[in-house]
Amino acid sequence: MHKLLAALSLVALAAPAVADDWTWTRGDTIREATYLTLQLVDWRQSCEIVKHPELYRETNTILGEHPSQSELNRYHIAAALLHVGIARALPKPTRDFWQYVSLVIEVDAVAHNRSIGIRIPF
């Protein structure tokens, strides 16, 4: 899934834009905040995977099945910063596409973790 996101981001960066396409909207902020919230939930769920490797395996191929806590933290910090940076760099409607695809991926990750019994620990 992350390879798909990387490929889509390359396509999105190649799209032409006009001046009006660069305006950041309230909708952009809402989508980005929602993505970051879901990513935070995903990170906290993944912390449970790290704490209980005998019960769970990480499905993120970038992290591997049993990442360390520091690897997990670095990944999620970098992913959050990269996501915001890419969203800010993209013109509309490519930005919208980037944000919606990312939201679907994060919802899927959180839902999968929940389906295997990982609560949302806060």
Care to describe what's here?
It is a single chain. By secondary structure, the protein is mostly helical. It is elongated, with a radius of gyration of 15 Å. Helix 2 packs antiparallel against helix 3. It has four helices and no strands. The two termini are 26 Å apart. The chain has helices at 2-13, 26-51, 69-89, 94-115. The protein has one domain (25-115). The longest helix has 26 residues, at 26-51.
Summarize this structure as a short list of keywords or feature phrases.
about 120 residues, mainly alpha, 4 helices, single chain, about 65% helix
Could you outline the blueprint of secondary structure elements for this entry?
Layout (H helix, E strand, L loop, with lengths): L1 H12 L12 H26 L17 H21 L4 H22 L7
Helix pairs in contact: 1-4, 2-3, 2-4, 3-4
Number of domains: 1
Taken in chain order, the helices and strands follow as HHHH
Shape: elongated
Main β-sheet description: none
Helix coverage percent: 55-70%
| Average pLDDT metric | 89
Low-pLDDT stretches: none
Tally of extended strands? 0
Number of helices, where a helix is a run of at least 4 consecutive DSSP H or I residues: 4
Q: How much β-strand is present in the residues?
A: under 5%
Helix/strand class: mainly alpha
- Distance between the ends: 26 Å
Q: Kindly provide the radius of gyration, computed on alpha-carbon positions and rounded to a whole number of angstroms.
A: 15 Å
